[in-house]
Every structure is written in structure tokens, then in C-alpha cells.
Amino acid sequence: MERAIACMRNGVGQVDIEVDGHLLVAAEPGYSLEPGSAAPSPYGMLLASLGACTAFSLRQCASRQRWPLESLDIFLTLSHEACGPHVERMLLITGVDRDCQQALLEHAGRTPLTVLLGACMRISTTLI
């Protein structure tokens, strides 16, 4: 079971978050923690979580198949459309042939967070 605590102090535009002993900071869009730096927004953290879940799941899949996956870059964007939120996920996969890339693309649609988030938003995934 995962647990998290989110704490806002003094009404400032940042939230301190503890997830299973790991400390994170989220900020309201446009809120700067210090000059030149800003924490991700909740939407940014959502995209980061989906990217991490995708990367871990695809690495595990490649490992089980003994495919020589060298690198995996995942580019994510979130847009708010008339029909609801839409995540566009693009995968740049190196080290494996086109057939393995296609299999990993298909597997991306079955990762745990993709399944969870796909119940309330559209997620499209392509290879680049």
C-alpha cells in the first residue's frame, strides 16, 4: 500500500509531500520557490509518474524477453480538450529492432498507471 501526506503551510503556493519516506515539493503553476527555480505542478507530477511507470514496465518487459534495450526516452504532454484531458506519450527506444519496439509500444498500453488513468482520460502512444 502506498501512502502520501501533502502539507501546505501559511497559504503559500507550494505543497510539501512525503511519499513513503521520500520528500517532494509541488507548486501552483507560476509559483516560484526561489529565483530561477520552480517545483512541478500537480499535472507535471502526474505526467512524471506516468513516465516512470511506463519506463519501469517496459524495461521489465524487455528484460523478460532478453531484448538488448539500450535506452528509453518518454516524452509526455497533457492537453485539455473539449472531450476531456488527453495525454500524448511518445517513445524513443534504442537497442532493439522495430518488431521489439512495436511489442513495447503495445505493452505501454497495459502498464499499471496507463490502465488506471485511461479510465478517466485518453492516452495515445506513438514511437518516434
The largest sheet is: 3 strands, antiparallel
CATH class of the largest domain reads Alpha Beta
The oligomeric state is single chain
Q: Give the low-confidence spans.
A: none
Q: Estimate nothing, just give the exact number of structural domains.
A: 2
| DSSP E strands, number | 6
Radius of gyration: 17 Å
Task: Estimate percent helicity.
Answer: 25-40%
CATH architecture of the largest domain: 2-Layer Sandwich
Q: Looking at the structure, what is the overall shape?
A: elongated
* Strand proportion: 25-35%
Structural features, described:
- With 128 residues, the protein is α+β, with helices and mostly antiparallel strands.
- The protein has two domains: 1-39; 42-127, GMP Synthetase, Chain A, domain 3 (2-Layer Sandwich).
- The protein contains three helices and six strands, in the order βββαββααβ.
- It has helices spanning 42-65, 98-108, 112-118; strands at 4-7, 14-19, 22-27, 71-81, 84-94, 122-127.
- Strands 1-2-3 form a three-stranded antiparallel beta sheet, with no helix packed on it. A three-stranded mixed beta sheet has the order 4-5-6, with helices on one face.
- β1 and β2 (14-19) form a beta hairpin.
